[in-house]
Amino acid sequence: MKPYANLIGGQWMSSNDALKNVNPSDTDDAVGEYASATPNDVADAGKAARAALRGWARTTAYARAEILAAAARELHARREELGELLAREEGKTRAEGIGEVGRASQVFEFFAGEAVRLPGERAPSVRPGVEVEVIREPVGVVGLITPWNFPIAIPAWKIAPALAFGNTVIFKPAELTPASAWALIDILNRAGTPPGVINLVMGKGSVLGTAIIGEVDALSFTGSIPTGRSIAAKAMERMVKLQLEMGGKNPLIVLDDADLEIAVDCALNGAFFQTGQRCTATSRIIVQNQIHDKFVSALSERMQRLRVGHALAAETEIGPVVDQRQFDSNLRYLEIGEREGARRIGGAVLRRETPGFYLQPALFADTSNTMRINREEIFGPIATIIRVDGYDEALEIANDTEFGLSAGICTTSLKHARDFQARIQSGLAMVNLPTAGLDFHVPFGGRKASSYGPREQGRYAAEFYTTIKTSYVRP
Ligand code: ADP
Questions:
Q1: Where in the chain is the domain with CATH 3.40.309.10?
Q2: Would you say the CB of residue 145 lies under 6 angstroms from ligand 1?
Q3: What are the tens digits of pLDDT across the range 381-420?
């Protein structure tokens, strides 16, 4: 099997090394081999991106929009095939995979529109006879480093605005999920991006990260907090513009006056869908006294009925965990929770027809917010319950975390819902909705240790992918 190649300066470049892409639903199934780029390849990609920058930035916005729109159309047309590929390499269900490819298509379509809508300003000067203009220009060569949990949507929401606003790109996808990334770059390449405008360098972040930082004017990263911190420190040495999206420990408050069915749906979806591998996943469910027992028993019951299985099997609701390392980490947290005295429901290791990383979703009841299972991001199908007396205590606990990505509340009280919206310290606030599940046309991002730099997505993406020039003119 010939490895899939990297794209550098418009050429598909093979490599001496390749990484095997393994299906987490069936570890005997190899999805393919993907060439590992070297730091030298990254340097070549940097040169190509730099050389292409002027020409690309000067194309008309409409020409760039047409390329993005063509990519959106192909993604839409191939969403079933690519969704299946995504599910096969990442382990989310086929339906979730197809949904994600559909989302990537919407994102490209949206930014095709944004390319031609990018506004400037004209302001009166305080001096007579002077005109002032504020315009946005491309930032330059942009490095994009992405995780495995949304292998096509996250690349899409970084690449689309980068290209729309005239930047050139060095893109490094996660080593666990290169197939979706490769397919996306192939589409963009055939859609007509000129050589060097988009460069794909696959392989390990630990090998390529420093080289990427050395080549770029701006870097957008989504991944873990330790990696984000180390990238940020290196990037600051070169004054690289930064955007980091990292972890979460997202709370969902359930008040006594909540609609029980809505609350259980929100918790089930937020905590366990996509195998809990979302940075916006619900991990701490903070439940008021009176509804507590009813809620925990209804949620446990629904959770234990979730069908865990091969990502591509029609009946599967929850796919496998992405790989051995993540699987072991989940098991470690299950042990930690028990040692800390929490009551575990579910969480059995499951066997299926094919060898894969199958884990039954788990809920820890009777936990306190000081336990490690409530402080550290687990990134798996594991959630906790924290019992509280009232709303004020719930809000205090919700905010008592180093993270601040998403947070939710289930209540029929307008007063509490409004107060929660105002006082929750997170970038996303959900009322009677799961903490995960977002629209593509509005900003996404968090506070505290969850995020750094300008927001992603929607019109706000322009803040990161453009830089402002203020011109003063005496005509
Ligand atoms: P996870 O633990 O969920 O895989 P990571 O933060 O390790 O999260 O990975 C997210 C992305 O960051 C991946 O593309 C990975 O290859 C990349 N990465 C990992 N280490 C580094 C590093 N030192 N420098 C740059 N990128 C890195």
A1: 250-431
A2: yes
A3: 999 999 999 999 999 999 999 999 999 999 999 999 999 9
Question: Is residue 337 within 8 Å of 367, Cβ to Cβ?
Answer: yes
470 close to 134: Cβ distance less than 8 angstroms: yes
121 in active site: no
Q: Is 279 a catalytic residue?
A: yes
Evaluate whether 205 touches 195 at the Cβ level (below 8 Å): no
Rg value, the chain, Cα: 23
- CATH 3.40.605.10 domain extents, the chain: 6-246+441-473
Question: Domain 6-246+441-473 belongs to what topology?
Answer: Aldehyde Dehydrogenase; Chain A, domain 1 (3.40.605)
pLDDT for res 1? 73
250-431 to CATH, choices 3.30.1330.130, 3.40.309.10, 3.40.50.10490, 2.30.40.10: 3.40.309.10
Q: How far is the CA of 145 from the centre of ligand 1 (A)?
A: 7
Verify whether ligand 1 is closer than 6 Å to residue 223 (CB atom): yes
Q: Write the pLDDT tens digit of every residue in 122-154.
A: 999 999 999 999 999 999 999 999 999 999 999
Q: Which of 279, 377, 410, 456 is catalytic?
A: 279
Dump pLDDT digits (tens) for 238-271.
999 999 999 999 999 999 999 999 999 999 999 9
Name the helix (H) or strand (E) containing 103. Answer: helix 94-117
